[in-house]
Amino acid sequence: MKKRLGEVLEKVYSRRLSPEKALECLTDYPYQDLGFAKVDHHRELLKGYPEIVYGLGKTPAQIIGIAREIIKKGSNLLVTRVEPEVQAKIKGRLKGTTYNAVARTVTLCQKPAPAGRGKIVVISAGTSDMPVAEEAAVTAEILGNDVVRIYDVGVAGLHRLLHQYDRIREARVVISVAGMEGALPSVVAGLVRVPVIAVPTSIGYGASFKGLAALLAMLNSCPGGVGVVNIDNGFGAAYLASLINHL
Amino acid sequence: MKKRLGEVLEKVYSRRLSPEKALECLTDYPYQDLGFAKVDHHRELLKGYPEIVYGLGKTPAQIIGIAREIIKKGSNLLVTRVEPEVQAKIKGRLKGTTYNAVARTVTLCQKPAPAGRGKIVVISAGTSDMPVAEEAAVTAEILGNDVVRIYDVGVAGLHRLLHQYDRIREARVVISVAGMEGALPSVVAGLVRVPVIAVPTSIGYGASFKGLAALLAMLNSCPGGVGVVNIDNGFGAAYLASLINHL
Amino acid sequence: MKKRLGEVLEKVYSRRLSPEKALECLTDYPYQDLGFAKVDHHRELLKGYPEIVYGLGKTPAQIIGIAREIIKKGSNLLVTRVEPEVQAKIKGRLKGTTYNAVARTVTLCQKPAPAGRGKIVVISAGTSDMPVAEEAAVTAEILGNDVVRIYDVGVAGLHRLLHQYDRIREARVVISVAGMEGALPSVVAGLVRVPVIAVPTSIGYGASFKGLAALLAMLNSCPGGVGVVNIDNGFGAAYLASLINHL
Amino acid sequence: MKKRLGEVLEKVYSRRLSPEKALECLTDYPYQDLGFAKVDHHRELLKGYPEIVYGLGKTPAQIIGIAREIIKKGSNLLVTRVEPEVQAKIKGRLKGTTYNAVARTVTLCQKPAPAGRGKIVVISAGTSDMPVAEEAAVTAEILGNDVVRIYDVGVAGLHRLLHQYDRIREARVVISVAGMEGALPSVVAGLVRVPVIAVPTSIGYGASFKGLAALLAMLNSCPGGVGVVNIDNGFGAAYLASLINHL
Amino acid sequence: MKKRLGEVLEKVYSRRLSPEKALECLTDYPYQDLGFAKVDHHRELLKGYPEIVYGLGKTPAQIIGIAREIIKKGSNLLVTRVEPEVQAKIKGRLKGTTYNAVARTVTLCQKPAPAGRGKIVVISAGTSDMPVAEEAAVTAEILGNDVVRIYDVGVAGLHRLLHQYDRIREARVVISVAGMEGALPSVVAGLVRVPVIAVPTSIGYGASFKGLAALLAMLNSCPGGVGVVNIDNGFGAAYLASLINHL
Amino acid sequence: MKKRLGEVLEKVYSRRLSPEKALECLTDYPYQDLGFAKVDHHRELLKGYPEIVYGLGKTPAQIIGIAREIIKKGSNLLVTRVEPEVQAKIKGRLKGTTYNAVARTVTLCQKPAPAGRGKIVVISAGTSDMPVAEEAAVTAEILGNDVVRIYDVGVAGLHRLLHQYDRIREARVVISVAGMEGALPSVVAGLVRVPVIAVPTSIGYGASFKGLAALLAMLNSCPGGVGVVNIDNGFGAAYLASLINHL
Amino acid sequence: MKKRLGEVLEKVYSRRLSPEKALECLTDYPYQDLGFAKVDHHRELLKGYPEIVYGLGKTPAQIIGIAREIIKKGSNLLVTRVEPEVQAKIKGRLKGTTYNAVARTVTLCQKPAPAGRGKIVVISAGTSDMPVAEEAAVTAEILGNDVVRIYDVGVAGLHRLLHQYDRIREARVVISVAGMEGALPSVVAGLVRVPVIAVPTSIGYGASFKGLAALLAMLNSCPGGVGVVNIDNGFGAAYLASLINHL
Amino acid sequence: MKKRLGEVLEKVYSRRLSPEKALECLTDYPYQDLGFAKVDHHRELLKGYPEIVYGLGKTPAQIIGIAREIIKKGSNLLVTRVEPEVQAKIKGRLKGTTYNAVARTVTLCQKPAPAGRGKIVVISAGTSDMPVAEEAAVTAEILGNDVVRIYDVGVAGLHRLLHQYDRIREARVVISVAGMEGALPSVVAGLVRVPVIAVPTSIGYGASFKGLAALLAMLNSCPGGVGVVNIDNGFGAAYLASLINHL
Q1: What is the DSSP letter of F49?
Q2: Contact, F178 vs F201, CB < 8 A?
Q3: C246, D8, G45, H113: which one has the fewest Cβ atoms less than 10 Å from its Cβ?
Q4: Distance from CA of F29 to the nearest CA of B (A)
Q5: What letters, b where the CB count within 10 A reaches 16 and e where it falls short, cover G43-53?
Q6: From the candidates G4, G10, G27, which should be mutated to test the interface with H, based on the most H CB atoms within 10 A?
Q7: Could you say which DSSP state residue C196 is in?
Q8: A33 and F162 in contact (C-beta within 8 Å)?
Q9: What's the rounded Cα separation, in Å, for the pair B41 and B33?
Q10: Which residues of chain D neighbour C23 with C-beta distances below 8 Å?
């Protein structure tokens, strides 16, 4: 479209086309992309400095291929959901990258992202929730945020959570990760005056219905200030938290 | 935007602006509406000649107000989901309109819509499904289609359905309406070689779960050629069928 | 059957029937009720001293009729789910009874039930949960228990809950009532070493799905020691708690 | 208990115990099993002559062990849900037995079961439904019934079903098996005047939700005379059909 | 079609048409209704002698109109789901009919239906289940069956159920009606060797999900011989039971 | 039946049977198949020129066997859902066939199908939706349609979709494929005036519930003109689209 | 607890208690409330300056009573979910308050809340979504935010949404409200680089399942940066958005 | 916090700080952990004497590592959900431990837990429910309870259950385990006057929906006195039962 617009403008300038005719002709194209490439570029700049690869379902070869291109461009790299057996085949073939075995992420930071304004505190309920929490933490870090990790402080042992009260209150944004009954975000949102991003996890069995119980609990969170993302979506929670922290 | 574009073109024409500068300046506005009013107009012309009012949840006064404006413009009118108690209050206050007590529609055809190319056959399973079927039929008619109604031919009495075999085969598009087990569209789709639009109804009780059973059945329809719309969405089925019939 | 057994025994005693024949003839009646009346009587004595009437769906006349019979027998009376409009018509016609407008119960205690061994603490999350909590409390009381009420201590305001720490720890059994995210029983079970009976309520809207969210949360309760009853089943929770408290 | 009753009767006969005392003592045992062994034996005789082994989840060794005991007793044998890889290890080790690879059953008929009174017609919708249909057919046969198989007559091709009209009408009981939209039982029940046992299968994908769509459809079956069993429960359908056919 | 066939046959007889041509021409009409009226008549004769009117959603005037036509024809009449407020307006206007306030049925038996071969025993769990149980009983009776009612024998009080053991065993078919946990059909099916038709009711609250809990329980019934119908479908259960009882 | 009809006609022709008697005798056979074989043949001709094999759950040997028969008959072949590991074993054994690794289809076009009248545009949201989109595209092509593929234009990047505005508007029918939030068909239906067939995919995790989220979104599509097929049913969408495109 | 602590400190100061003993004695009180009143006060100050009353289920008298107390304290007042019939009885009895008939809110701002840092843009899809959108807008305003309303810009008419592109981009936080297919937040999140709070509404029918379809769609939102709140929770969305906007 | 409190007390004692100032300073820390370590210790002592390891998802190496630490401390050990293939690798490497192949537990009792006051009776419905029942039994034993096992007494064979009537009545607490229709707890709760802990299992197929059917049935249990835990949660049931039995 840009090309077409250029041609029209040329014709107008050279007076082969009247402004009226040009207008008519141009407005004939609803929903056209006048400069969309530019928009695209904008979004790339703004939304998430690293380039993100969702690793699940991709072969090691595909991941290596995509990652190398990103690295070559000089971008930061974040590959999520890289299972250990996939990592085993990637290992050593993506120079400089780091594998976080808990988060199942492969990262490479070539140029630090702009720093967020405060701390993002990632709080998780149980040890089994750690992969999701750590995916959130790693993502938040590569997006330029200062991250505080507070893990294994589920509501069953309130004292452990309250022990961390001072650290929690340092947060500009909280990411709260929990499976099973998903009660942690409700409790945390009652303790702080900052946004809480709630991440249900699929941890549990039986009536957890793969995270549905935790998801519903979080959507019904009694104290205000809780926004919910999809089950196991540590990445998405960090992305949203980072957006907030960079405001 | 159109105004802005006009100004820019004027400046180019008067050579107060180079084409390059103009291009740069114009492409700076992603997602702009270059002629959207026009597009809007297009859609109005194309998509559904009558103007549609969804009556449910509107007061008689609101319906009368909106309907009168539409009528004044000379448009065709279709108000759906006008319950009898609402109609009792509208009655006599919208001159020339027709109330279909089964379909619960108020209509006024001021200028016939362009004719569809073939017949739309509306087939319904039980007498309780008639309101939805009739909403579909009335909608299809005001959209310019020749409509054949075949009601009360559920699969429990196959002979009644097969009796209508010849009439069914006249269809260019079939709309098949059924509640409860929702089997009719599957059977009908096996009898014809034209598209079948399936409409589940909320008729039933218990394990019908307000139309969910029929909806799922239709989505799993074994013979090909079936497209499904929302539960009780007679209007939507007719709209889609009419689009097809006007191709 | 008892009669039949008596007759057979008489015949054996009078030697009109041999033991072998008698055995053969008696064992021919599987699942017979040899003394079932007695069993029935046992159960009546043991299971819930008051007689319970589930008021929902009963007319005022029916409730009055049933209640009067129970009162005449000298039993304690508990009518649950008596909505205010029903109570308006019952009022004054059941002498000596008490109406609890929050619990929606009608009670009459003619002879105190045997005392439970400790305290039952009823803890509820929000003010909207009070009808269910109070139904539990009233039921537990008429079943002979010493009841402590701690209401409006939802997890959103942890300090309010912790303020009550000492009172909570006095419990021999806890009944924890919560709607919405249903997190309270999990938090409470982490604070005590006694059984926690969790009651989800239908309080909430949208994704609470009429108590389903709270129910699932409670079934997934992370700390041990939580048993769950049906949504809004304050009566059932108190019945179970009372059984435990009378052990 | 039988022993105890015998002893009591002996004591009464020898006049060491009065009938009154005996009655008192015997009726003191509510829910006792006066002859339950006999009852048990009754049920064995009556309910399904073959002994049934549910093969799923059992090791080949377990199946062989159980089956041999049954065979040794002279009973008929029916093992259901024997997957091919299990059968591969059983093969040749259970003399005289037959493996039906479609039904995934292992059977041995040592003494024919009493014959049912009419024919059981097993009708299935698609070829993928055949394992369930065949499990029903094999079960019905070993239970003593004359079985007619009519497969692959789904409602998408009504003519194929109607071709079989005469054979269907021979049925004393119909078993109708279908996955996906589960429409077959509704259509069949409209064609016959005998009981139709409907078996939903888990055949399908997406919105079939592993047979839920078919199950709901069948429960909502419009024509009367349809009883539904669990998803994929070919065995259960045949068992019920056989009960009916032996009445 | 019949007319057309007649014409063709006439032409063949008068040798204006060769058999070959006639065959070709006739077979050109797939799915034609060669005698369908007759079939229809067959079904009317066979399937349910009374004519059934589903009362729910019909106005008193509509019910009266339909019922009078049926009565005039000399048929037996069964109107189901006639709520008391509707009955109040029908009362006295349908001579000779009987209103069963529990079953919510209006019936008139003008000519007794052919008698079933044995007894249909209708067993229900709680007093709240009685409307559904009674609808089944009334339906079974007008269909010509000898009905035994055994109500309020839920599994919570097993002794009450077992007291009725002898009466239950008289059944040729059992209809077992239960809401809440829906356990009764499983227990009953373990006690008898005849078909059990299970009817879940919508009785209950919270996690009963309007009968879903009972429905699922019945579909998973452990003992064989259970066929399930839709929630609250007392009529359907009786229809199926009657079909079986007339075999 | 055809045979029987032939015989009857012969008898009429030879005057061994009067037309009246013949009529009576013929109409005695309700639901008989007067020429159904012919009907079947009709359907074969009309519905989907290629023969379709659903590959999932079939062994390589089965697929090869069925495919060879189809090829031998001279028909076009379409095998869907051929996973790579199955294809590895089929490869080279079905001469002339093409394997599309994205669509997981095996095809052979021996005689071009009749051409559709316009273009079918297949639009998919994400790269993960491509297998379903491509199954639709391949199916539409072998059914004789001119197919335009527009992939990876999800609503998250509206500019990419709008870039394709002109190509989208060329469609006579649109197939819109999307997983996760399933928003694409709604947006697309707002841009065109032709039927949109919406295909939800099982792409996503957590609260996508294997495509349920996308399915519900599509059924609730706000703009008119959308018909929905089952989750992942690329084939079904193409079949319906082709029916429409051949009208 | 504070009192107790004071006493202990006094004793230590007067050296009647050693620090060691004091420590021992104090630490004996787990979960004690050392200053919780203070904390409570903190929360009041920080979390939502106005006091909020959830109007649904409260009588006019209750609302008036609570509201007057709040007003007397000099606090700002926000009553949500005040249905017109309730407002009719409140009207004129709460001086100075404003009723917003669309939002169904009663408000009184006595002292302006601290101003948020940017604009909160509230975007809604359809006119039926306006009550929820307006509840969000009114809430955000009384919480001190500058609110921009952009209503009726659903994805079915993309041009209307894009027309508002510039206004949308002014947002520091976006609240996106939609029922039915719930696609709006996904599209909006693709257009901006700020947090998007998504609010599903219960608008729709049939397969919208009272907002479930929209809720699931939003949780699966493809572009990053979307946090979801409960169905119809306009208040909650505004509360979260305000927290973010005051960071 | 303890340290901080110590320091403050020291300063008060040495009169470097007035009690007033100290109070002010200390109360400035809401939610602080004054002695939480101690609390933690309390809980350890009280809640479950053995240390519990949830084996599922842990590698053999992880289990061995954790178990050895627990054993070294002298604690009792309970590892749950140790699948046979994991046990194969653990075997012989944890001296003195016992593997229960049915319960899939590894246990070591180094010091007997305090004895419960009565018997816990574990009743299960089918042989397939035994793993869950046995997990409950093993857990209850290591928690110090006298356990009675009554397995394979499902409601389909009531006589088997009633045979055990005397043993059941010895219970102080009953744990009732059942899959499929989940009817056993309802029947058992009608036979005893002690608390019944109901454990649904995921045993079943089709409409059991992995234990959902049994779960719902148990939540709707008609007789009072039933508390429900999560699907397959034998451990949790035993933990709750033990709490009750130690009261």
Answers
A1: S
A2: yes
A3: G45
A4: 12
A5: beeebbbbbbb
A6: G27
A7: E
A8: yes
A9: 13
A10: 2, 5-6, 9
- Residues of chain F by 3-state class (helix, strand, coil), percent to 5: 45, 15, 35
Cβ contacts of residue A72 below 8 Å, gap of 6+? none
Chain G interface mutation, best of F155, F168, F184, F226, highest count of G Cβ atoms under 10 Å: F155
With CA atoms as reference, the chain B residue closest to A6 would be B23
Chain H: residue whose CA lies nearest to D28: H166
CA angle E222, E233, E118 (to 5 degrees): 70
Rounded to an integer, the average pLDDT of C191-198 is 95
Q: Are E207 and C40 an interchain contact pair (Cβ–Cβ within 8 Å)?
A: no
- Tell if the CB–CB gap between G32 and C162 is shorter than 8 Å: yes
D/A Cβ contact: 3+ pairs below 8 Å: no
Q: Do D19 and C39 touch (CB under 8 A)?
A: no
Q: Which residues of A touch G190 (CB under 8 A)?
A: 43
Set of chain B residues whose Cβ sits within 8 Å of the Cβ of A27:
2, 5, 34-35, 38
Looking at the complex, report in whole angstroms how far the Cα of residue C113 sits from the nearest Cα belonging to chain E.
22
Tens-digit pLDDT profile for chain F (247 aa)?
Answer: 456 677 788 888 888 888 888 776 665 443 443 333 333 333 444 444 678 889 888 889 989 999 999 899 888 999 999 999 999 999 999 999 999 999 999 999 998 899 999 999 999 998 899 999 999 999 999 999 999 999 999 998 888 888 888 899 999 999 999 999 999 999 999 999 999 999 999 999 999 999 999 999 999 998 889 999 999 999 999 999 999 999 9
What is the identity of the amino acid at E82?
V
Condensed to tens digits (0 to 9), the pLDDT of residues E170-211 reads 999 999 999 999 999 999 999 999 999 999 999 999 999 999
Between β-strands G98-100 and G105-108, what pairing exists: parallel, antiparallel or unpaired? antiparallel
The per-residue pLDDT for range D83-108, each reduced to its tens digit, is 999 999 999 999 999 999 999 999 99
Paired strand residues for D149: D122
Exposure on the CB side of residue B217, measured as CA atoms within 13 A: 41
Q: Which residues lie below 8 Å from residue H24, measured CB to CB, with a gap of 6+?
A: none
- Per the CB < 8 A criterion, the answer to whether F205 and A201 are in contact is no
DSSP A115: P
| pLDDT per residue as tens, chain A (247 positions) | 456 677 788 888 888 888 888 776 665 443 433 333 333 333 343 444 678 889 888 889 999 999 999 899 888 999 999 999 999 999 999 999 999 999 999 999 998 899 999 999 999 998 899 999 999 999 999 999 999 999 999 998 888 888 888 899 899 999 999 999 999 999 999 999 999 999 999 999 999 999 999 999 999 998 889 999 999 999 999 999 999 999 9
Q: Which of A36, A210, A232 to mutate to test the interface with F (most CBs of F within 10 A)?
A: A36
Per the structure block, which two tokens stand in for C202? 């239908």
Nearest chain B residue to D157 by CA: give it.
B190
Cα–Cα distance measured from residue D80 to residue D53, given in angstroms and rounded to the nearest whole number = 6
